[in-house]
Amino acid sequence: MKKHLTALAIVSSLSAAPAMAQDLDIKITNLTNAIYFTPFLVAAHDKHSRLFMEGSAASSNLQAMAEGGNIAGLSTDIQAMGGNVVENPAAGLLAPGGSTRFILMSNKDNRHLSLTAMMLPTNDGFVGVDSIKIPKKRGVYTYYLKAYDAGTEANDELLTGGGAPGMAGIPADPGGYAGMGGSGVTGADHNSMIHIHRGTQGDNDPAGGISDLDSGVHQWDNPVAKLVITVMGKHKKHDDDDD
Amino acid sequence: MKGSIKFGIIAATLASTLLLQGCNDDDNNMQRSFNVEVTNLSHQQPFAPVAAVLHTSGYTGFSRGSMASNGLELLAESGDPGGFIAEADSDNRVLNSVSGTGMITPGGTETIIVQGNSSQPRLSLAGMLVNTNDGFVGLSDVDLSGLNIGESLQLHARVYDAGTEANTEAATDVPGQGGEGINAARDDRNFIAVHPGIVSMDDGLTSSALDASFRFDNPAARIIITRTQP
After folding, report:
1. DSSP letters of B162-198?
2. Is residue B143 very low, low, confident or very high in pLDDT (cuts 50, 70, 90)?
3. For the domain A21-236, what is the CATH superfamily, name and number?
4. Label partner for B15 (CA 20 to 30 A): which of A61, A80, A238, B127?
5. ipTM given for this complex
């Protein structure tokens, strides 16, 4: 809290200095037990654009990402707004316990960072962060990320292969722990806006029950991922005097 | 590091200079006004009217590990913020306490305005999750003294358990399911803790009237505090 306010104050004191292009060293780690992340879209962008916003309706391209892992539309959208992106840094799925480290080159106007990736197996769950203010000062910055529900598909927890937007069901369980033959957990979402995912229900009946997911394997609590941004400033000397 | 300490000292010096000028000039320079925008990020847990309290250091609306006040018990068990606000109003460190106008539904937002005359304002708030026995979303003692006019602070609030009522999840005990509100008996652990969440009938709690759709994870709310021109 106090730290946040200090950061605000420092940022405003620096605002007169010219902003420069920046190379960001980014590392994302999957903190869940058995949830896989589909390819990430990571974007640096200005304050007027975003990938998603809590409490607001999902765009159709956010829905495509959250229900089927397709980041193509979201990536096109944010680049059309001048954003810099890295797509699919893990070269495929990011498994539980796994991490991916990569460089994002952002231009001087893109002072905010957002990212998204679908969580498997879920109906429309995704890990994400909306518009972190990219730190300017050299250093290592750690953030913990939450699981969101896109609010676009009922969480029936049935592994029926529905990955296309608007199609019911979960596309896949890459870990192979899911069962089958569930009757379906719930009806339509009661919150159609992007909200905090209430988590997996699951059951302990691999051949029936209400859910195809396993309550002893597929559950999580926030946070579900760790994001570490290392800012490698342009100036290696006299950095301490900058502010 | 050296830099930020230096900055901190300069800022503190500037702040106290400004403060002195403010007092000499006009008390209105310490007048603070904030928009507190509360967004419900849960799936199926409407918030009962949220109580927002602007105060100075020393007031504590609730504290993890401590016993809930009677006002907080009423707020957390029935959704009525009246007692919590009355307790705040009787504390001379409280600048302003305001109740939201109604329920905040999942995905919904309400903006509550709080104002007061202090250069060191702090904010606490609480609002019941109506499909729980005694769960409430809350913020405690957030320092707003560093916000300039037009600046915002975005926070996320987690769900606490008032510790005053056992988490039966039964329809007779949960207001959102038609159950009773306040029950003066304290039949739980009697201290405020982070809420363990909804178990639900789908997970084998036979007394529960709630299915899995009422579950929640933290945070349950986004709070954006913006300092405005008083």
Report:
1. -SSS-----TTT-GGGT---------S--S-EE----
2. very high
3. F-spondin domain (2.60.40.2130)
4. A238
5. 0.84
